[in-house]
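RECORD TYPE: protein structure
NAME: ABC transporter ATP-binding protein
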Amino acid sequence: MKRSLHHLFCMIIMLKPLFSWKVYLFIVILGMLAFLPNIQLIVTEHIGNALPYSIQQGQYGELIVLLVIQAGIFALIQILIAGNRMLEKQLNSHFKCYLQEIVHKKMSRVKISLIERADVHNQMMTLSNTLPSFGFPLLMNFFNFAKSILSISIMLYVMRNIHVSVLIIIATVSFLNVFIVRKYYHRQLQIYLQASEDSRKAEYLSGLFTDRELASEVRMFQLNQFIISKWKTLFTNVEKLQVQFKNKQELLYGSLQIITQVLQLVMLIILVLFTSFTVGTYMLVTQGLLHLQNTAHELVESFNRLQETSIYLPSFFEILQFEEESEEPHLIQFGGLNQGIKVQNMSFKYPNSERYVLQQINLTLHKGEKVAIVGHNGSGKTSLVKCLLGLYDQYEGEIVIDDVSLHGYDKNSFRKHIAVLLQTYGKYPMSVQENIWLNNEGDGRNDPKLQKATQLSDSQDFINTLPHLMETQLNPIFDDGMDLSGGQWQKIGLARAYYRNADIVILDEPTAAIDPLAEDRLFQGMLAHLTNKTAIILTHRLGICRWVDKIVVMDGGRIVEIGSHDKLINEGSYYKEMYDSQLKWYVNATVAK
Ligand SMILES: Nc1ncnc2c1ncn2[C@@H]1O[C@H](COP(=O)(O)OP(=O)(O)OP(=O)(O)O)[C@@H](O)[C@H]1O
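PREDICTED:
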C-alpha cells in the first residue's frame, strides 16, 4: 500500500509540468460539482416543505422561485459536466502524448541487450496497454476520489438528522465494494502477466497474414492452416483464462449487488421506523439516498481505478530504470580516430545465453586500414562488430580506441564518426532522399553529398526511373508509396552509409543482394569512398578481399587467420580453402563451356 501510494505520488510529480490553467479549471469545476448536488438537495427539501402550504393557501410564489432555482442548478450542473468532459478530452491527449514520448525516448536509449529479453517485451506490452491510464485519467481519478469524499461529507452533514445505523450500513456497503474490487484487480494483473507471452505470440501470428514481407512465403508454403492452428491454440489458452476469470468476477459482482440491495432495504425500513417525516424530509431522504449511492459508486470506481493504476505503475517506473547506454558527462567525447582500434583478449557471450560467441579476440586495426572479416555462418563476425560499435558492452577483455577503452567514450560522440550498413538495415516508409540522409537532413535533390552518395552506391540509375525521383515515397502500404527490389534497397543502405561521410566505415554484407555487374561498380565506388577512411567489411563474397589491407578469418568465435590476400593464399590457409571453393564454380563453369 505504501509502495503504491509512493508510485502514485511519483507519477503526479512527473506530470506536474503539464499542470496548465486547464487542469486547475477542471479541479475548480469538480469542486463545484461536489457542492451543487447538495444545494439541490436542500432546495428539494424546501420544495417538499413548501408544497403542502402552497396547495393549501393557493400561493405559489415561493414554490415557483424554488423550482426555478432547482432548474437553474440542474442546468448549471449539466453545463459544468459538459465543460469538464471537453477539458478532459484535450488534457487526456496532451498527457498521453507526454508519457508516450518519455517511454519512446527511454526505449531508444536502453541497452540493446535489454531489447532482446522476453520479460522486457512482456513488460512493454503491458505498458502499451496501460500507459493511457497513467496520464490525465490518473489525476482525474485522484480528483474524483477527493470530490466524492467532499460530496459525501457535505451530504452527510445535510442529512445529519438521519439515524446513525444508516451511516453504518453505508460504510459496510462501501467497505465490501472496496475489498472485493481490490482482490479482483490483483487477480486481473496476475492473469494478464500469465497470458502476456501467449498473447504476444498470438498477435505475431495474426500479423503474419498481413505482413508484406512474408505474405508470399505464407502463400507459397501454404502456411495458412498451420499458422491458424498455432494461433488458435494460443488464443484459446489466453481466452480460457480470461473467461474463467470474468465468470468469477460476474458471480462476485452479482452477489455484491444483491447484498447492497438488501442493505438498502434495511436502510429504508430504519428511516421509516425511526425518523419523523415531513414531505420535505421524505424527498430529501429518497433523493439523498440516490445521490449518495451514485457518489459512493463514483468513490469506489475512482478508488478502484487508482488501485488498478497503482498495480501497473511499478512496471512503468521499472522501465524508466532500465540501464541506458552511458551518457555521463565525465565520458570522453570522441573527436575522430587518430591511431587505430585494438581488441585485446576479448570474449563475449550474449546476455540471454551462457555460450561464448567470441573467444580471446586479439586484433589491431590502424587508422586508414581496410579490413575484411570473413568466416562461415555463425562464426561471430557480426557479434564482433556489434561489440566494436558499443552496442554490447558486457565483454571480457578490452576494446581500445586511440589508447582509451571504448567504455570511457561517450557512445553518441563515438557513433557520430561511424557510418554503418548492418545486415538488417531500416527500410523506412519515407521518401528516397529521407531514407538516405535520415536525421542529417540534406538540402534536397541537388545536395552534392546526396548526389555523390547515390553515385558511389550505384543508385542513381534506378532512382532516375522512379516516378518522383528522390521524392518518391517508399513502402506501398502507404498512399502513393512504392517498393524497391532487394538489391536496390541495399544500394540505398550503402548510400546512407556513404552520405554520413564518417571516418570509420563498417559494412556488413554490403553486396549480398547485388547482381555481379553492379557489384563490380559497387566495389569501385566503395574503394573510392573508403580512401583515407578506416573500414571493416564483413563479407561472404571474397572478391573484395583482394583489395583490402588485411583479412581476418573467423571460425567458432575465434580469429584463426590474419593476413593479406596474397599471404593467406600462399600459406594454403583456411581462407584459401574458402576462396578456392568459390572460385571453383566460375572456373568449372568456364571449363564446361
Ligand atoms: N542476440 C543474440 N542472442 C544470442 N545469441 C546470438 C544473438 N545473435 C547472434 N547469436 C549467436 O552468436 C553466434 C554468432 O553470430 P553472428 O551473427 O555474430 O555470426 P556471423 O559470423 O555474423 O554469421 P553470418 O555470416 O551468418 O552473418 C551465432 O551462433 C548466433 O546463434
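COMMENT: Residues 276 and 282 are 9 Å apart (CA to CA).
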